[in-house]
Amino acid sequence: MSQLTPLFLLIALFTTILNSTSGEPVGVCYGMMGNNLPSQSDTIALFRQNNIRRVRLYDPNQAALNALKNTGIEVIIGVPNSELRSLTNPSSARSWLQNNVLNYYPAVSFKYIAVGNEVSPSNGGDVVLPAMRNVYDALRGANLQDRIKVSTAIDMTLIGNSFPPSSGEFRGDVRWYIDPIIGFLTSTNSALLANIYPYFSYVDNPRDISLSYALFTSPSVVVWDGSRGYQNLFDALLDVVYSAVERSGGGSLPVVVSESGWPSNGGNAASFDNARAYYTNLASRVRENRGTPKRPGRGVETYLFAMFDENQKNPEIEKNFGLFFPNKQPKFPITFSAAREGTAVE
């Protein structure tokens, strides 16, 4: 018995390490449109205290980037829509990359550069792909194209057909815009960023979509799509995007859910209890690495929107998506990562 003890302990230790590092970390979007928010350094400290290991920044805020140095937190950094046209100039793209990425790398762990967020194809869509190409070429000039990926974030308004999920397809009038972007992402081994909100799908169509289906609380399958059963709307919407990407020539291109959330006030079905149910259930699903019915077993990199309630956003509903109040107190308990068991917002 004593001879088996070391082996038993070794197996137990390995199992503990394996379990503690399994699962996909839950990222958080860090917006700063509030006049009562903590400093960037205090906010990144809050990220670390709560074991939040991924962050999305919407612009290259210098104070936030300095606070992220040597933390190991993975970063999506955004190019604001207002700067996209300037980046169609290769020299400007190189300068942008130098000032906002290379000057902080490798102390800051950049993962993606989001070139634009929810750009309307009819209002600036023509500059997105040229800007993406120039940022990529600048990265390639620094030999970082395999470490930091270039993408853009879309919303669900680009989707034409969304039911059933296997029939997902982009609108015909935006294919000129999205198909070349998907081709670029595929050729550069990147991923498409997609902002996916079951909340808005539900409030736009409460007659056909149940609240439990939107909040991950349905006890059984709600929608069958051939042999695939859907118990929640998030999986269905993500599979709609996967199907649309395939129809646009993207094959198995990964999709990162770059925003998803539920408001706790300010609109229909916007309540504390609903927000708590949505965020905690989505975070649990992400950590479990279950994937979707269309792509089972594949981790879904996901960013919860957003870190704080932001009182300078409009309309009113947009002010209430925070996981934390501006005083740094959590609205509800969420486990963001399984890396250290028991680390959660209390």
UniProtKB/TrEMBL annotation:
Its EC number is 3.2.1.39. GO terms for biological process: carbohydrate metabolic process. It catalyses: Hydrolysis of (1->3)-beta-D-glucosidic linkages in (1->3)-beta-D-glucans. One of its GO terms (molecular function) is glucan endo-1,3-beta-D-glucosidase activity. Keywords: Glycosidase, Hydrolase, Signal. This is glucan endo-1,3-beta-D-glucosidase. InterPro entries: Glyco_hydro_17, Glyco_hydro_17_plant. Belongs to the glycosyl hydrolase 17 family. Residues 1-23 form the signal peptide.
